[in-house]
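User: Can you fold this complex?
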Amino acid sequence: MTKVFKRVYPFYFLIPAGIFYILLFLVPTAVSFFFSLTRWSLMDWSFIGLDNFVTFFKEPWLYTGLQNTMIFAILTSGLKVVFGLLLGVFLCSRIKSGEFIKSLVFFPVLVSTIAVGITFENLMHPSNGIINGFLAWFGLKGPNLLGDPDLALVSVALVDVWKGIGIATVIFIAGIKSIPEEYSEALQIDGGNAWHKFWNIIIPLSRPAMNTVIMLSLIGGLKTFDLIWAMTKGGPGFSTDTIASIIFKQYQAGFYGLSTAGNVILFLIVILIVMPLMKLLTRNEVEM
Amino acid sequence: MGRPRPADDYTANKAKYATHPAALRSFQKLGDIVGYMNEDFLASTVDVGIAMLAEGRGAQFPIFTSQINTLKQNHPDKMDDIGFFPTPSDWPDVNGLTIWMPWTAYIYKNTKNVEAAKTFLDFITSQEGVNILQSATTPTGPHLIRDAELPQDVPALVKDLLPYFESEQLSPALEYLSPIKGPNLINIVVEVGAGFRSPEEAAALYDSDVEKQAQQFGLEGW
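Assistant: Here's the predicted assembly.
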């Protein structure tokens, strides 16, 4: 092997990174797989086999949580693709104060999620919030965005889209900018209009960017926790619980073995959804 | 009907919220409040609730008397406008108070300064020490220190508590009588109070939550 493929770096170069990888990633992963099989109080543990997994699947609110997690992940991921692409195309065109608008779109990404959550919790307050105050101006009675169990999850998802759209837009801008000019020139010679450019050049050729946005936002959506906790704490009742918030509540209650088992399950769910999806998405990418 | 004593049976996995009459009644009473709350109750904080009482926009707020300090800070002129009563019982002769126990002070077993620590504890439990505490915070109920006296001018709310202590019509909260408590109680009671779930269904659901807690902590009999 070494004769055919010359090694770029000597072996000892890899040792520091290798040690960090083993200590910070491999060991904790192995340890958490082990503790998911125990009743664990942080001080001592006893081995109970798969009982934690049985208990986790028996959680009465697990299925609401699973459903919410899927709705949240698909909704936020889809909206980020659509609006990220549109904003990306818009910001790639020659517009005045484009840089300013770019920073405006990216600004929410820089703000702490908890701060965003608390801010929107107040904006969405049913009687004192600005959103319903604005609607009242037109004589409309605004909905209870976070208090109505049918609306709360969608409200949080929309805030997540607002907060994450900047990253999606930046990825789309990079993708669109990397499309060679020749395609547009050929299109002009052939007499194509802006719509043709969008549909036949930008969409197929920004596919790698789109796939990155889908993967990142879907994984982010599947393990979403901080925004939900800041805005609703999984409530009212259990109506905005996600797998991650269910696990957090178990951890808070001191069920360390059970919550570790929950994390192992969440890890498997993310892998089971993301791996085939990644294969499917990259297969459809075209050569530039 | 006789007066049930659920705590020990509860710890021993013999009494259930879904089937014990007194325990189930507590969920049903919670269900009775559906429709009587302010419109935005799911978004209301404790401060808002206290403000509603003080400003006369609210009539009743089921909460600990320890919130007297919120009232004192935000609405000091309304201290004597607000009183207290325990949730009425189905057994009028035991219409009592549920109490949350006061803070305690301990001495670390391996300390080098046992005598100094004891002197300090003697001081904070003396009338002099209690007076200093009372000058800094409003007492939220009588002291658990023998012969320690409350100030003359306790708020109306605390005065309402005292007869229950004198007649011993009280019980510590279940948290002090049993190690069993399910982690999802808050979410479940919100569902009942908001009318999302029936009290009977909620009681059964809470029983399963409790079972999980007891098993996770390895308690006997579960």
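The mean pLDDT of chain B is 89. Residues 124 and 130 of chain B are 6 Å apart (CA to CA).
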